[in-house]
Structures are given as C-alpha cells and as structure tokens.
C-alpha cells in the first residue's frame, strides 16, 4: 500500500493500489518495477532527443506521459476528467484543468522554456515555481510526480544542467511537504530550496 491515502480514482483494481493495466498485473511490487523500468527507458530515449530548440510545450508534456506508459495503461497521456485529492490537498478541479494547463504552459513558453535564465539560482527558482504549478494541476490519473520530474529534468539537460537530484528529499518526506505547501498555500519556498540544492552543472 502507498504511504499516502489512495487516490479517489476509478483507475485502480478494487481494494489495491495497482492501476488496471494492459498486462493484467495485480501485484503491486511487480507493477512498480515495470513502471520504473519504463521510466528509465524514457529518460534514455527523451534525453537523446532534446536540444536548445526543443519546445517544452503542453503537447510535449502530454507525449512524455503517453509514450512512457501507453504499453501499460489506457490512461497514458490523457488528462483526468474527475476531481482528485491526496491527503488534505485538493488538486485543480477537473473543469478548470484544460484552461489552467494552457495558462501554465503558455507562461512557460513566453519564458522561452527557462532558457532566458542564465543564473543557476534564478533558473532553479523558476523550475520550482513551474513544478509547483504542475503539482497543483495534477493532470493525469497517476504518475504525475515522476512525469513532471522527468519533464523538468529534460529542461535542465537542454540548458546544460544535470537531472535534478531529489534523493535527499524523497524518502524523508520533504518533497511531499514541499508539494503540500505548493498545492495548499501556493508557497514554493520549500520547493525552491530542494531544487536549488539538487541542481548542478
Ligand atoms: N498530500 C499531498 N499534497 C499535495 N501534493 C501531494 C500530496 N501527496 C503527493 N503529492 C504530489 O503528488 C505527486 C504524486 O502524484 P502521483 O500521480 O501519484 O505520481 P507518482 O505516482 O509518479 O508519484 C507527488 O510527487 C507530490 O508532488
Ligand atoms: Mg502514484
């Protein structure tokens, strides 16, 4: 079982944290192993494909989710059509999802997908801001966290940085705490601290 309350979502096999999947897998450990392998593969494939000219727009973001998980899940690449929450955090209401998503990605495009920012700390703070926005959006039924971190890692690579190192913040719950502050209070200070520490050339 996941550490956090299960999503209020119909995508799971009844009474489990295993999403209904194309392989008919019911074992939680196995499905997470397969997800992680697909994600590792995606890191390889997508990081070979980026350059300073890559448009990290909404279609690109959706395609990351779709291409990574379409062999496993029917909901790959599709935005949810129901409201979702985790703990006390209510994510973007489904009826505002499309317009909110557009707002965020248009803003990111106007900011030239962060290419404008040559200072490392400024760049990190903008990643934290957009990361908070996408965490609050929570557009997919599942695997939002991993796909949005992949998305920002690719933006980092395109700008000459390494993928962000979150390892000091995941197991001790600090990443979730920072997420909660983003979603419930639109406060990105903790997320900024994490990204500044995890970002290097
Ligand atoms: N209680 C919470 N409040 C706000 N955000 C949360 C909470 N719990 C988890 N999150 C955010 O949701 C993400 C997990 O969403 P999920 O769709 O399950 O993705 P994944 O399966 O890749 O972890 C976390 O990475 C975190 O950013
Ligand atoms: Mg999950």
Tell me what the structure shows.
With 201 residues, the chain is mostly helical. The chain has one domain (28-198): Fic-like fold, CATH 1.10.3290.10. It is 53% helix and 2% strand. Strands 1-2 form a two-stranded antiparallel sheet. Helix 1 crosses helix 2 (58-69) and helix 4 crosses helix 8. 31% of the residues are buried. Mean pLDDT is 95; it is low at 1-5. Residues 4, 86-87, 89, 135, 142-146, 176, 179-180, 183 line the site of adenosine-5'-diphosphate (ADP).
Brief summary:
By secondary structure, the chain is mostly helical.
Give me some keywords for this one:
201 residues, mainly alpha, Fic-like fold, 8 helices, binds adenosine-5'-diphosphate, binds magnesium ion
* Coarse morphology: globular
Which H/E pattern describes the elements? Answer: HHEEHHHHHH
Fold-level CATH name: Fic-like fold
- Radius of gyration, rounded? 16 Å
CATH homologous superfamily caption: Fido-like domain
Determine and state the CATH class.
Mainly Alpha
Assigned CATH architecture: Orthogonal Bundle
Write the layout of secondary structure elements.
Layout: H1 28-48, H2 58-69, E1 85-86, E2 89-90, H3 97-110, H4 120-137, H5 144-158, H6 167-170, H7 174-185, H8 189-198
Helix pairs in contact: 1-2, 1-5, 3-4, 4-5, 4-7, 4-8, 7-8
Bound molecules: adenosine-5'-diphosphate and magnesium ion.
Magnesium ion binds at residues 142-143.
